[in-house]
Amino acid sequence: MQAHISRWGNSLGIRIPKEVANRVGLSEGAQVEIEARHGEVVISPLKPRLRYTLEELVAGVTPEEAHASTAEVDWGPDVGREIVEE
What we know:
Shape: elongated
Structural class: alpha+beta
Radius of gyration: 25 Å
CATH architecture of the domain at 5-45: Ribbon
Strand order of the largest sheet: 1-2
Low-confidence stretches: none
Helix content: 10-25%
Largest sheet: 2 strands, antiparallel
Number of strands: 4
CATH class of the domain at 5-45: Mainly Beta
């Protein structure tokens, strides 16, 4: 399938035919990755990033695990540049 490149401000734009967009699951507002690879322009749909609430992230954490994750950890004596003079 062929298409024409048009000027869009200081950039160039191309229209993606509906048939092609449907085949790869693109719709208006979708984000894509554009890269030059071996002399070709490759446009790939980005998978949407999943967003979680804090409640969803900690839903499976037991009280014992929560306590263990906040417990003080002894990493051994200070060495090198992290030594803090008190």
